[in-house]
Fold:
Amino acid sequence: MQTEHFYYDNKTVKRFAYAVLFWSIVGMLAGLWASISLFYPSINLGLPATSFGRMRPVHTNAVIFAFVGNGIFMGVYYSLQRLCKTRMYSNLLSSLHFWGWQLIIVVGAITLWAGKTSGKEYAELEWPLDIAIAVVWIIFGVNMFGTILKRREKHIYVAIWFYIATWVTVAMLHIVNSVELPVSMWKSYSWYAGVQDALVQWWYGHNAVAFFLTTPYLGLMYYFLPKAANRPIYSYRLSIIHFWALIFIYIWAGPHHLLYTALPDWAQSLGVVFSVMLIAPSWGGMLNGLFTLRGAWDRVREDPVLKFLVVAITCYGMATFEGPMLSLKNVNAISHFTDWTIAHVHIGALGWNGFLTFGILYWLIPRMWNTPLYSKKLAESHFWIGTIGIVLYAVPLYWAGFTQSMMWKNFTEEGQLRFQFLETVTHIIPMYVTRSIGGALYIIGALIMVYNLRKTIRQGHFTAQELAEAPALPAAETTHGRTYWHRWIERRPLQMLVFSLIAVAIGGLIEMIPTFLVKSNIPTISSVKPYTPLELHGRDIYVREGCYLCHSQMVRPFRDEVARYGEYSKAGEFVYDHPFQWGSKRTGPDLARVGGKYPDSWHYNHLLDPTSMSPGSIMPNYGWLFDTELDTLRTPGMIHAMQRLGVPYPAGYAAEANGDLARQEAAIRASLKGDKISTGANKEIVALIAYLQRLGKDIKAAPKEQTAIKDGGALMGN
Amino acid sequence: MKFIHYIEKVSGVSVYGIFSLTLFVLIFGVMLVWAIRADRKMIDEISKIPLD
Structure:
């Protein structure tokens, strides 16, 4: 058989590797900054861009899409060529993919700092960037499938299945969750509202974890672990079971982010069942990875690459054990809205994604630069500093989460809440400090790696085009025993794509269709009315400043929450919320019923200097809201957009909206004047006060019997 | 253009759950049988691809 000669493209892999190194440091520093602002709020220097509400999305987006994203592409571009024994399909597409992705990251960071956000966690980037992401993702897909189709290896190795499933699912998630109506260049409203928006968002959010942070990295594990250990994966059969079970089950688990919320109960239960089932394939994969090293543990002691991989896989096992546990309603009742969740995701992010990426970099760079690693000792130091960093990061946050939840739920013998919300916050500040120390250690470790790899690169010489040879793929196939359907499919990438899409789409559709279609799932409450124009502006400011990152708007039906915040939330309250603002973390108290709780002047003073109203508060000052003028030219466009989304403003209201806005604004200014506060005309602060004062008020106006009747249907979806 | 209450009712929501679980068990079962019965030589061959 004729042997063909060809070249692997290492240049694109090198570019992605540099991008990984660069963005890892940027993303982690943003995280460190955000974490410090939780115990030292003035680190934001009084600037809007550096306040927690904007730094946190910069951190999450940078770490997920820039650090891990480039890590995926680095690993895929290296392994795919070798698994297919062919060069990448197109140099041009590789280049467009690389530069397109970096451009999205840079523009994304700038727009997030500027407060341009759609207000949906992990999908904050605004609509022009959503389109750009879709385009670059398609370029990646074409390049990947082109490569698979021109391969010289007849079998498609399991790592490639994971890449295919990743590509198709992320495309689906991104497109469905990003359906939004643009109102201006950098502002859009989610097409969905309230409960439906929440369900779509967490279907996306959970599966972003599954198909951006997990499946591609499992593909990398199935390639780089055998490479680094120089032995095949423990059980290839198990990897097949791992793959199909994982992608089929993962897609259903999203609603576990919404337990005890106003989401219909059947959807919550479905999420719990599938989340618990997830432990089986996840642990199957973890054990498959660890057993690959059976009989080679002596090498783990000496090889930093294997050390990083082992800890990464172990962290994967821990996080995927914890995930199903956190999905149980009784555990979730304690953990949700607390730092427990933050600790959980960082076991995944720092341990699984971070350490696997570091392991791959330590393996890849010496190979591509034809030189041994500059210093094994420094790599060892990185390993230990990073590991201690993870422990110091996670343990205090587990402690903080559990402690705070217990304090929230604590009642005195007389039946009163024992702790003010603020007391539960100040109590855990030492844990926040320790967490930042852990995070800083982790970054120091990463910096040591950057230095070590830079030295390695300096001492080696890079092979941009790596010569390889392989026989051409024969037209006639040799058979091994009987043929089965799976053998048919595992050689056909396009069929694989279709089957993966069906597996993930069915889960998504069955979860969402009933919530979208059944009227009884979203009972209407007649007293719930659309926001006034001024409140709508205030809501935009609330979204822009990322208030939802620290304040929930979802009172769960627990004794302590009803006692602390008021009546629990009903699905019908959110029908005009584009996007929903339920939040996922309570660094500050819930705001679902804050309307009318305090006078306007309290909010004014609190936003100017939170500690003046709540001594010890860790909320930043929002000084710029007092100077910035409200852009009332936007008002008609906003009303039009809301009307298109189905919010029942009267016909022609867009033209009158600014008149109503001015009247409500004057009323609030007059009320502030009554408390000896004079504020200039048309300031943003007044709009935000108007929005906050509206929250939760509508349901209080409803006749008692009406809400009582609706309760059963709204809460439990019966 | 409205998504709210697009269709008034869907009868038998429980069908969705039963259908999904059945489908999962079916796919999982077939795949499990294949994985267990698959030819050993072929499995060995595929699992060595990364090491070539």
Summary: The interface with chain A takes residues 1-10, 13-14, 16-17, 19-20, 23-24, 27-28, 30-32, 34-39, 41-52 of chain B (CB under 8 Å).
